[in-house]
Amino acid sequence: MSPRPVSDYVKQGWEIVGYSVTDASGETYQHSFVLRRQGQHKVVVVRKKMLGEGLVVTEMEV
Q1: Distance CA 41, CA 60 (A)
Q2: 25, CA 20 to 30 Å: which among 38, 45, 50, 62?
Q3: Cα of 4 vs its chain's centroid, Å
Q4: Cα 18 to the chain's mean position, in Å?
Q5: Is the Cα torsion angle 51, 53, 54, 55 positive or negative in sign?
Q6: Do residues 25 and 13 make contact, with C-beta atoms less than 8 angstroms apart?
Q7: What is the pTM of this model?
Q8: CA 6 to CA 42: how far, in whole Å?
């Protein structure tokens, strides 16, 4: 997993059209990005792992 997953999407031609951040558990933040490319849309949610190092990335097609 790349330490900069959203940058990887942008390099692949996705455009960021929306962003929000939520306090997920009082200790970590959940960053949500709406991406668009050639009429397709997806939501990418990025948060820090609860245990250990790294990120959890969830991708949803919309």
Answers
A1: 9
A2: 62
A3: 9
A4: 11
A5: positive
A6: no
A7: 0.85
A8: 12
